[in-house]
Specification:
The chain is 17% helix and 44% strand. By secondary structure, it is of the alpha+beta class. A five-stranded antiparallel β-sheet has the order 1-2-4-7-6, with no helix packed on it. Strands 3-9-8-5 form a four-stranded mixed β-sheet, with no helix packed on it. A hairpin with a 4-residue loop joins strand 1 and strand 2. The chain is globular and about 40 Å long.
Length: 126
């Protein structure tokens, strides 16, 4: 009896490991970091996606000394402050590419200008 129970437990653990490895969902990476400059995009509701047509507050947090701008459809700047740009994003019809909103950032520090694109997932509902 003891052997069968041990084998069942090991088989179950192996199944969970393989199932867990194959069932991982891709989590979006909303961080740009080139070693000298870091910019992070955070959706204020804690989710990693936007809801189509629903205004959503978010923010960009960036390294000290960066001059920062953001471009994309449906983005409204609310209240920039030191090292943070608060925005509200409302996705609109005809602006998504592969169910993502493409948001472009441009930034400048003392030495260079750099750009980056974030692809923010958009869903129809929560």
């Amino acid at each position: 009896m003891r052997n069968k129970k041990g084998k069942s437990v090991i088989t179950g653990l192996i199944f969970l490991v393989f199932y867990g490895c194959n069932n991982n969902q891709k989590t979006p990476n909303f961080v740009y970091d080139d070693g000298n400059n870091k910019i992070e995009f955070i959706i204020d509701n804690g989710k990693n996606y936007l809801i189509f047509g629903k205004p959503t507050k978010a923010k960009f947090i960036y390294s000290e000394g960066i001059i920062f701008s953001v471009f994309g459809p449906g983005i409204k700047v609310l209240a920039p402050s030191e090292n943070t740009m608060n925005v509200e994003i409302t996705t609109i019809d005809g602006t998504l590419i592969d169910d993502e909103l493409k948001v472009e950032i441009r930034a400048k520090n003392r030495n260079n200008i750099f750009t980056h694109s974030f692809g923010i997932p958009v869903r129809e509902s929560e």
